[in-house]
Amino acid sequence: MPASATVAAVVFDLDGVLTDTETIWDEVRRGLAADDGVPWPKGATEAMMGMSTPEWSEFMATTVGVDGDAETVAARTVGAMAARYRAHLPTLPGAQAAVRRMAARWPVGLTSSSPRRLIDTTLATLGLTGHVRASVSTEEVARGKPAPDGYLRTCELLGVAPSRAVAIEDSSNGLRSAAAAGMRVIAVPHEALPPAADALALADVRVGSLDEVTVELVENLGA
Fold first, then answer.
1. For the domain bounded by 9-20+90-221, which CATH number is listed?
2. Whole-structure pTM value
3. Pfam families from the xrefs (predicted)?
């Protein structure tokens, strides 16, 4: 980012950054496979992180071998996720404060691999709907993460060049997606599902929690 390209927007990921739901996705998908008597393939969890709904549901149907076509698998999975969210939506420490802190200084966006239904439910549950100006589900663009499509669309909706936006990500594919979009990237690695070393190397800065994502830190990325 050139010295003149000051930060003009901040874009959050959702699962694994604001909500501790990456593990729930994994539990639900593994549960579907177990219910259908299908063994869980090695690397399947990591492969699906960042995929859009059409992508991961096709992967579940064909590569994992869960019963039903992609549309059926998506419906089964999202229905199970919604039930888990209604029972309890685990939020990562500092999530709501971080979004509000950034929104007080810049336009805030969200780019998630979750389907629209779960994005809207989550933002409403966390009381953040009014703080997020633009949100994009990767099911609404051509390609999911690690492709840059979702982040590029969010920046477009915010009216900001990607080079002037900062992304906050946790997963390998998320970090790759934001970097490919030409954004500055803050990595907040998830303890249970840490990103690959090569993906983490794409981040401009790594923090231990969202409490460390301060206005000063973000401003320095554009300095």
1. 3.40.50.1000
2. 0.88
3. Hydrolase
CA distances from 165 to 13, 29, 106, 197 (A): 13, 33, 10, 23
Name the residue among 10, 2, 20 with its Cα closest to residue 192.
Answer: 20
- Structure token pair of residue 46: 């990591």
Q: How far apart are CA 24 and CA 28, in angstroms?
A: 6
Q: What is the pLDDT along the chain (223 residues), one digit of tens a residue?
A: 443 479 999 999 999 999 999 889 999 999 999 999 999 999 999 999 888 899 999 999 999 999 999 999 999 999 999 889 888 999 999 999 999 999 999 999 999 999 999 999 899 999 999 999 999 999 999 999 999 999 999 999 999 999 999 999 999 999 999 999 999 999 999 888 899 999 999 999 999 999 999 999 999 998 7
Which class does domain 22-87 fall in?
mainly alpha
Say how far residue 151 (Cα) sits from the centre of its chain.
10
CB atoms within 10 A of CB 147: 21
